[in-house]
Amino acid sequence: MSTTLRMRRAALVFAAIGALALTGCGDGDSGKDKAxxxxxxxxxxxxxxxxxxxDGEKVSVAAVxxxxxxxxxxxxxxxxxxxxxxxxxxxxxxxxxxNFLGTKIAGGQPPDVAMIPQxxxxxxxxxxxxxKPVGDEAKAQLSKNYAQxxxxxxxxxxxxxxxxxxxxxxxxxxxxAQAFENAGASEPKTWKDFIATAETVSASGVTPVSVGxxxxxxxxxxxxxxxxxxxxxxxYDQLAKHEIKWTDPSVKDALTTLxxxxxxxxxxxxxxxxxxxxxxxxxxxQTFTGGDQPKGAMVFEGDFVSINIAQTKAKIxxxxxxxxxxxxxxxxxxxxxxxAAVALKDSKGAQALLTWxxxxxxxxxxxxxxxxxxxxxxxxxxxxxxxxxxxxxxxLIAAGDDVRFDMSDQAPQSFGGTPGKGExxxxxxxxxxxxxxxxxxxxxxxxxxAAYKS
Length: 454
Description:
Blueprint: H1 3-22, H2 29-38, E1 58-63, H3 67-84, E2 87-92, H4 97-106, E3 113-116, H5 119-127, H6 136-145, H7 148-153, E4 155-156, E5 159-160, E6 162-169, E7 172-176, H8 177-183, H9 191-203, E8 209-210, H10 216-231, H11 233-240, H12 249-262, H13 271-276, H14 280-285, E9 298-300, H15 305-309, E10 320-324, E11 335-343, H16 348-357, H17 360-369, H18 387-398, E12 404-405, H19 407-410, H20 413-416, H21 422-432, H22 437-452
Parallel strand pairs: 1-2, 1-3, 8-9, 11-12
Antiparallel strand pairs: 3-11, 4-5, 6-11, 7-9, 7-10
């Protein structure tokens, strides 16, 4: 099946999200009960993976996750402890994680395993000879449970180093249902309709779009979704590998489209200055607090937005609804991200943890908690706690090998994954001055050329 057809199929599944939301399905008990009943999560369920006994062994895991994400990942680690007898310690990390790991390694205290959120960072860890190849048991789980694309994303020069445990559908726009209803707004299907919808919401007295611009990665996601839909998957792959320059006309077209939003500060909560002071979690919570008078009516980001919505009184499917990122070109985009487990010590405990994280049992634990999508194709979708989350997960799996991974996460970390530098910084500057498209392109190309050593 062609990439375009795959994208269309996934887009159709995404479109079902809105219909599901209209039925009022959300985080209610009925969805959770169904998941528990159908997913075979009871104590008597057969294990999907065999793990070694590791009594007395200590395993440390570094990740940038905090709050609910850290709490849910800890539940996955707790089950690993129960099954193996190992003691697992969670090590809080900071972005950029390569710098954090470098400090730990230089100090002689590397964690056994690191959860790495960028493909480029995995490649750097391999180049620095920090990463250890994945063992046979984990590779067997990957072969059984993962599409080839997810295996390839964790491989460098044909050797498997990463186990992708957590994925993200980064092509979604969440909205305050009451604010939309009051404005008489409907879910847009195209970018043109999206801007028109924003204008409609604005006319009702509510600022339409909440942007977490203080976190530069959110701005890269805006660009990538527009670029993939407008330029197409082949160009997307070329730009991701820096096979074409950021001064290419296709980049100009995407930035021009993005400027249709960024160039209208009245459509953005707090304008550009306010957005640049708003971190991602706040961009979500301010969309779903204040009843029908929120600070913003819509917020763009992935399925993980549900974690932050859970910190408000809004209910997914009733108060908080979602639609696919609008099509700029022929199709709505399908962009994903993910976190891969990489062993930094060649130990039995590290390899056992990689095997565990590649298993269906491990994925099911976090899936049942919500705020999580697994790239594990063997996971029963009934494990997810509501139909909205379930449908997003099914759409990701349906995209198969043609899903497109977050472009900035494929880049060298100095360009695509460092606060205050590279793509993050240039797009923040572009948010402030969206008229300077040529300047943004030149800076992006200069930084990319240095990072890719072109």
